[in-house]
Every structure is written in C-alpha cells, then in structure tokens.
Amino acid sequence: MARLPVGWQPCNAQRMSNTPAETISDILHRGMQRARVYDWSGAVNQFRRAVAVEPESVEARFRLGWALWNLADSNKPSMADMAMVYGASVFGFNQTANDGRKRIQAYRQQIVDGVQYLHSVLERDPEHARALYYLAKCYNAIDRRAEADAAARKAAQLEPGNTSYRSLADTLQQQGVKLPEMASSLSGQHEPTPEPPLVFEPTSWDELVLNPKTKRELRQMQLMLERPDLARELGVQSPTGILLKGPPGTGKTTIARVLASEANCSFYSITPADINQMYVGESEKRVRDLFARARATPPSIIFVDEIDALLPQRQGGTVSVHSDKVVNQFLQEMDGITPNSRVFVVGATNRPDMLDQALMRGGRLSREIEIPLPDLDERHQLFVIVSRRANLAEDVDLKVLAQRTEGYSGADIKALLNEAGLQALIRIADEAEGQPRTLTMADFEGALLNLDK
Predict the structure, then answer these.
(1) Which burial class, exposed, middle or buried, applies to 427 when counting CB atoms under 10 A from its CB (0-12, 13-18, 19+)?
(2) Which domain covers residue 244, as residue numbers?
(3) Which helix (H) or strand (E) segment is 245 a member of?
(4) Does residue 396 fall inside a structural domain?
(5) Whole-Å CA distances, 132 to 115, 154, 159, 308, 429
(6) pTM of full prediction above 0.90
(7) How far apart (Å, rounded) are the C-alpha atoms in residues 281 and 271?
(8) Tens of pLDDT, residues 95-135
(9) How many angstroms separate the CA atoms of 200 and 208, rounded?
(10) How far apart are CA 82 and CA 74, in angstroms?
(11) What is the CATH number of the domain that holds 234?
(12) From CA 304, how far away is CA 334, in angstroms rounded?
C-alpha cells in the first residue's frame, strides 16, 4: 500500500481548520435576513444566539426585544379568538378552551420577554430611542398605559424629528384621557381604590422559616453567585446547580425565589409540562431556548420543579427514547455553562432516587440540600406568619396548634388555616347578626378533623 505524504490531511479536516469562527455580526445578519421575510420565530432564535455569544451587546439585545415584539404582534389573538375561548369554556369544550388560553398566554409571554430585553438595552444605553419606542408598544399591548406613555414621550423627546415616535406618543396620550382614573379626576370625583389582598411572600433569608444549617448552606450558594471572584480566590469550584430535596410542601419553590432575590438573579421557573411536548424535537428545542434566555441575562437561576419527572433515569429502548433525548439535551446544556456565564440550576424533588445519576455527578447538581419538615418551633412561627391577615378569637392558641400538627409542612399549615376559615364562614352565616367575625379554636378543631392528616 502506498504511503500518504507527510502532513497530509483529509480534505474535510483541512476545510474545517481554515473555516473562520462564527461572529456575532454573522448571527445578526442571519437574524435580519429572517426578519426581512417576516420569519419572526427564526429571527428570535438567531438573536437569542447573538445575545448568548456576546451578552453585553446592546445591538443584539435590542434586536431580540424588537423581534419578540414583532413575533407577538404577528400572533396577536383577535376578538374572535377571545370569544371562541370564552364560548368553548362555557359549553364545556375544555380542550379547545385550553388550546386557546395557551395561545393567549404565549402571546403575553412574548411581550413580557420583549419588555425584559428592551429594558436591558436601556440599562446599558438610557437614550436608545428605538428601544424606548418598542418598549412603549410592548407596554401598550399589555395595558400598562402609564409606562407606555412615559416611554413613548421620552423617545419623542430624544428624536423630535421622528414622526413615528411623535405619533405613538400622541396616540397614547389620547388613549390615556379615556382611562377611568383620568376621567374621574377631570370630573372631580375620586373613587376609592380597593386595597389588594396582602399575601406574605418571603424575600429574604430572615423571613424564611428554616433551620440554621439549611440557611447557612443556601447562603453559601448565594455568595457563590454574588461573589464568584471571591470564590475563585479561595479556590472554591462553584457548582452549576443544587438539588433541593424534601417532602412536598416544604417551600422548595419559595426557597429558590428567595435565593434569586438575595443574589440579584434573573429567575426562570419551569415544570416538566412546560418542556415536554408531543412533537419530535420540540422538547429539546425548549430546553435550548431556556438556557439561551438564561445566559442572555446573567446572573440567572433556572428553577426546575419536580425535576425527577423531567430528567428521570435513562432506560434506553424505543419506549423512553423521547425522555432520554430531553435528559441528554439538558445535560449538554449544563455542561455548556461556563464559570463566566453565571447560570445556576436549582432542581426540586421529593424523589431524588428517580433522577438520572449523570445529573448528580460533580460539576452538575452535585450539591444536595435537604429541606426537612418543620419542627415544633418552626411550625409555631409558620402559624404566626400565615395567620397575620386572619381575625383570630382570643381562645385560639397557636402553640397548641403547632403541637397538634406534627408532620405538617408549611403548605399543610396554610391549608389548615384556609379550612378553618371555611368552617368559620358557614358558622357565621348560620348565626344571628352581630356575632364576631373571627376564627375560633372550634373552627380549627373542625379543620383538623376534615384534613385528618
């Protein structure tokens, strides 16, 4: 057999070695080509890639927000669509109604995503008139008229000669006069604004009812996200994610939100239902898009609730081939997270034994944090918190209720208070007028019997 010359390479390998790396300009150019033929979905995908390649690019972020607005506007539901959804729900055509609601939700989500990216442009360039113009359009589409009017007026002030900006600002100003609050102020009549119900949502570690050990572990993760430079100086290899495990109702979702709030991170929450789709390749595409969005707004936290249902152990074969592909795609995206991208994955499960073992190895979700059921003192604190807005009678002893609810989670305690409220509702309705409208210990006794935990 004849010998090959020294230094010989296959033609394909030589071509690959001489091929220049893809630049952000190339990606933006392809995105604009898609936009020119009104392929807004394709344009959005290209601009997402551009933001992932160069997260600080103002042009890439503007183009993505602009394309998201146009994608949403092209899919805007009509009044006929709204009427169809309403009619389907009234006559019991649940599948048709659900499909219609999903289209409406997708439209609103595209608008909200557009607002997010256009805001990120203005954070980097406060006088970006085009970003303000499209931000005004986005706000107007979701009925946030005050913000829309302010953005449109600022765009018109920055570029007084632009007739489109001035026209939008004038139109929004005319629409604003017809708003109920504006009409009442002109007539001299002021309707009192009803006070929205206050729902306690923890926003810091101090407001969470957790044992000190768990809080300390969570703060360690927070500091790794906040101070990656300090972690590197100390020789700490930051994990790409953590796994919160514990019984249902122990507040794993709330913990993830507080972690994002404390570390000043963008927060992306998904469930298996958001990812798993019946069409071939669509589930993997959703995983790619999710990570692309997170990389575009660092630092970010991707929270996956019931992660065991999304990433179960791979079995092989034809039955589980769809699930295996989603697991493979997710693992590939996690491996693509570089230390500088500052994307953190938080998984929550009450069945860690069901997870694919490759997910648990070092560099992925290698850090596991146990979220146990609350003890006696923690249950008492939870009763105090959830009953803040309730009118309790003098005979209600929260310490006694804490003693009688061993094995209850935070969600169970909330459900108990709600059940006690329902008991009081029917009792007060059946009693004579003038009785105090309070929750009594007897109401909680009835609630405990009904829940029978």
Answers:
(1) middle
(2) 205-370
(3) strand 241-245
(4) yes
(5) 10, 7, 11, 42, 53
(6) no
(7) 18
(8) 666 676 777 777 888 888 888 889 889 988 989 999 999 99
(9) 11
(10) 16
(11) 3.40.50.300
(12) 13
